[in-house]
Amino acid sequence: MHAETAYLFRHALLRDAAYQLQLPGDRARMHEIAFEVLEDFAGGRPPEPPGAAEENSAVTPHAADPFAFELATHARLARTAASADRTAMDAALRLYLRRGAEHSERVFQSEAAVSLWQQLAEVQQGVECAEALRRAAAAAHQAGWTRLAEPLYRRAAAMFRDFCARRNEGHALIGVSDLCRMTARVPEAERVLEEALGIFREIGDKRLKGVVLGSLGSIFRATGRPGRALANYEQALSLHVETRDRHSEGVCRASLARAWQDAGRLLEAEEGLERALAIHRELGEKRFEGIVLGSLGVLRQKTRHFEEAERTYRHALALLGETGDRFFEGVALGNLAGLLVFLGRFEESEALLVRVLPFHREYGDRRGEGIALGRLASVSQGMGRLEHAEKLAQEAVAIHREVGNRAHEASDLEVLAFIVEESGRHEEALSCLRQAAEIYRRIGDRDGEGGNSCDFATLLVASGRVDEARAAWSRGVAILLELGDRGQVERKSARLRDVCAGAGVPPFQAPDA
Q1: Rounded distance, CA 280 to CA 274, Å?
Q2: CB atoms closer than 10 angstroms to residue 58
Q3: Side-chain half-sphere exposure of 8, counting CA atoms within 13 A
């Protein structure tokens, strides 16, 4: 041990020993003095924050906020000093725990935020205690700690119900629903949101009614009800604009853009994502900027701007890592891995997927787990590990069915089709594509339907059914050209030419491509 290190170690021990030698009353007085000096240094006592029942309960930042944790600690330990005003110190403790929690959230220190909100709940009563629990749940939720967040949300919701705090109860139920959806309990998530929607309709809270309608839209989109999803998003957006809720407007515009992308309305989707990005940048919301950038990466990949897509994903990852949003960081990592699979960079993709898969399993994110397994199946297929690829694809499809993720069920059925086709099982491959086609039609994914029909033609050629293949090819190309997706037509044409050459069949034409 170096002399300097030894000195510091011994100095810390000596300091602790000296502190412990003081009588309890003297120690309390020391904390009282430290509290007074530090509070004066930090600009004096901040104003009292709004109450939990108020519409906007966030505190206005103050110069004392970076010192709030230390001030709360001194206030807690000074309460037994003979000279201290116990009531005043209790009030200061609550004030600085609240400010410390909100400051930790602003600087993306999730662990500290969760701890401080929980400490605040211990010294609060009634609705204020329940709100501190809800905020602890929200901080844990953002950090991806679902097993901690859900019981806190549920406890808060029950307390709000007991105190007839209807608006706060509905707000907590939104959090419960988000976690149910994340952990594959989609019917429960929808039921809880409907309960929250009833509360906000009853009390006339248009802003939170819009939030719930948007969340229900995301459930409808994920479970293959595109018409209801679009209707919900548009109604929610109207409410956000009416109530001037810029944050929720940005979130809703991004959700609506993703639904437009599903329907092949790519120009509208890009415009919607760009408007959402501008709103979050205007508000200084780096976390949501990262989430929207992740969606823009998906769109740029779909429109074959691969270098731009990769840059966008990496920018999103930097922001999400900085803000501590591990859930959406995992989503962005998975999407980047999907791009690398498409580009044939299998080893890079596999390294990312192996990194992200334990994250999804740790937090109970079955939807994310299924998507990652499907991408790993494509990696294994690309690296010639067909038996392993088939097992992964089957597992992915089973999870997608379990959680109601219809879009990825269809895409991974297509992956499975080409894996079993390579094993010479033509009819089984065609059956997988038929199942995928039915899903695409049900969820209104025209782009997926067109690509599927082209793939179906390719496998029909390989199995010698050329006339059927020509009809399927013409149908698929017509859909893709109608949507303006010439890039996919080019990719499908290249694959078809190779298969036709191997089968001794003249290549099909892609009219107007």
Answers
A1: 10
A2: 11
A3: 4
